[in-house]
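User: Teach me something about this protein's shape.
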Amino acid sequence: MTAITKRVDFSLRETALALWRNRQQDYPVSDTIPIQMARVQRAPEKVFFDRQELLVILHLYGRMVQAGEWRDYAIDGLRDRAIFSAFRRASEMPAYCIVKQPALAGRQGQYAITGSGGQILKRGRELPQVLRVLERKLLKLVE
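Assistant: First, the predicted structure itself:
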């Protein structure tokens, strides 16, 4: 607890009640009790996909489900990154992860695709360009 300077023999609660009851009177500075306010810590901001990014990702997800490649997904919003994980089965490790890291936007690009082993398949500044790696699985040879 922070140090509280007492210039009056009242406890803090009694002083507050006395000030409230006699709020019409002017009190000299010596009768007041300074209290330091606790520092308010805000929760850290989370990174997440915006609406347009989610539309592009979920459009790809729908096509991959239709092709039978993916069956489930998970979205994680963390302090430094947002992750869209696509699963072939619900009980296994993700087949692919689409990662958004705004801290890397100026360097390598904020979007990345990682494979099931953790290897980075593609990195870039624009999401549709990065997702082309996964769209190649949708192409089938028709005879």
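Now, about its shape. Residues 1-41 form one domain. The longest strand covers residues 72-77. If you'd like, I can walk through any region in more detail.
User: That's plenty for now, thanks!
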